[in-house]
Amino acid sequence: MLKKNKIRKTILNAGSGNSISINDIINLCKDKFNLKIKPIYVQINSKEIMITKANIDKSIKVLKWKPKVSIYSSLLSYKKFLK
Fold first, then answer.
1. Are 18 and 54 in contact (CB under 8 A)?
2. Which pTM value belongs to this model?
3. What is the DSSP string of 3-70?
4. CA distance to 9, 10, 59, per residue, from 3 (Å)
5. For every one of its 83 residues, what pLDDT tens digit does the chain have, with 9 covering 90 and above?
6. What would you report as the CA-atom Rg of the chain, rounded to the nearest whole angstrom?
7. Residues 62 and 7: beta-carbon distance below 8 Å
8. Which residues contact 37 (CB under 8 A, 6 or more apart)?
């Protein structure tokens, strides 16, 4: 007889565990994709979260998973994929 597995719902974060600014992402994209873009800056809302970093400890523990690729490497792979 088959045993029923109990599926437990949980929330997991995905990310690199490192912070990166929007400006850094824009500059990486401009550099890797030869984009000629200029960000448009607007007034910041006082309730806006300025710095975030995904806590991936639970993902590492539950999934036995760790990120292996940086944002930089991901962009290079994506650029190759697009060609």
1. no
2. 0.62
3. PPPPPPP-----S-SS---HHHHHHHHHHHHT--------PPPTT---------HHHHHHH-------
4. 19, 21, 26
5. 455 555 578 888 888 888 888 888 899 889 888 889 899 999 888 888 878 888 999 989 888 888 888 888 888 888 888 87
6. 18
7. no
8. 26, 29, 30
Please answer whether residues 53 and 18 qualify as being in contact, where contact means their C-beta atoms are separated by less than 8 angstroms. yes
Tokens of 75: 């962009």
Show the tokens assigned to 30: 């401009």
Tell me which amino acid residue 68 is.
K
Q: Could you give the angle at which helices 71-82 and 22-33 cross, rounded to 10 degrees?
A: 30
